[in-house]
Sequence to fold (112 residues):
Amino acid sequence: MKILLDENLPVRLKTNFGINHDVYTIRDMGWLGIKNGALMKLIIMNDFEIFVTSDSNLQYQQNIAKFPFIIVVLKTVINKYKNLHPLIKILLSVLENPPLEKVIIISKFNKG
Fold:
């Protein structure tokens, strides 16, 4: 799968997806600072299948029903690599049988 990591996520997360996925960051694509509406168009134009973010408001700010990709929201108490990387394992298991939902929320609310 072709996956894009939002700029609000640690770049190191890219290494947690293994070799079966093509994972890019916003920085890799040269899209730093691009606002959500324009970013969604770029995601579509570049054939990304999954957009991973920690922005839980995105689903309320955009008309996600029209997007041909899945938005994955990673939610933790602190948006740091040590808190987020365990969620990637959960995400990968979800992607083995992709759901029909356009938004997947994966959360962990303890600090460890």
Summary: The radius of gyration is 13 Å. Residues 81-95 form the longest helix (15 residues). The chain has four helices and five strands. Helices lie at 26-29, 36-45, 58-61, 81-95.
